[in-house]
Amino acid sequence: MAETLTTGAVGRSFRPSFFFWITVVMAAFVFSGFALTYLRPMAAGTLGPLPPAIHVHGLFYFSWMILLIAQSLLINVRNVQLHRSVGTFGIVIATSLILSGALITILFARSVRANPPADYYFLMYLSVVALLSFGALFCLAIRNTRKPDTHRRLILFATINLLPPGINRLYIVSFGLPEAPLLATFLTMDVLALAILIHEWRSNRRISGASWTGAAFVLVPQLLCVPIATSAAFVSLTGMLADLAYYR
């Protein structure tokens, strides 16, 4: 998350940029979705018992979204030095988010193995893809810290891959759906990705290779969702993941 910019001055005025607003929109999907299914029940004392790993993952997940807004805000007010310092924590949070996400994916596979929901394999696919895509794009973003525009766009594309849990919960609860609305979730992600591409085109009259790469990490897994999630190989993979929960 640490960016190298040409200026080190700290501005006093705040002018919301495109990058600031799109991080707010992303965070809104996450916090509104989990407010309905996690935060509000927890506050009301009606949340059922959950493994500690879920709470830990939630802490890192929410921290990442808050950090994303904070980092964008710091760039908006030109506080680059603090942005760089806080960016070190971004690496820690992102790494912890990936590791805790992998753990709860395994725990989920184990907990519902005997009686999986109708959308089980699609949810598992979304979880695996989110971890792999986020991890790959985040690493690319870290390698491009000296290219601020490339860095922040890769961070945004990486974060889009983390949004399905929040988007799914928001749509399921709001519209009383029986299972995750994959098409609506994918379209929401696509709109966010398209907004980033359009903004870059309007700003530079071109779209960089990094942005095309980020968009591909959003779109291609969507196209492969049904053939992979319904394949025998993926069913076998989910079984292997569930078996990992037996190891001590």
Number of helices: 9
Mean pLDDT: 91
String of helices and strands: HHHHHHHHH
* Separation of the first and last Cα atoms: 34 Å
User: Strand content of the residues, in percent?
Assistant: under 5%
Question: Main β-sheet: number of strands, strand sense, barrel status?
Answer: none
Helix content: over 70%
Structure write-up:
This protein has 248 residues and is mainly α. The chain has helices at 18-44, 52-76, 80-111, 120-143, 148-160, 164-175, 182-204, 209-229, 232-244.
Short description:
The chain has helices spanning 18-44, 52-76, 80-111, 120-143, 148-160, 164-175, 182-204, 209-229, 232-244. Residues 1-11 have low confidence and may be disordered. It contains nine helices and no strands.
Write the layout of secondary structure elements.
Layout: H1 18-44, H2 52-76, H3 80-111, H4 120-143, H5 148-160, H6 164-175, H7 182-204, H8 209-229, H9 232-244
Helix pairs in contact: 1-2, 1-5, 1-6, 2-3, 3-4, 3-9, 4-5, 4-8, 5-7, 5-8, 6-7, 7-8
Features:
248 residues, mainly alpha, 9 helices, globular, disordered N terminus
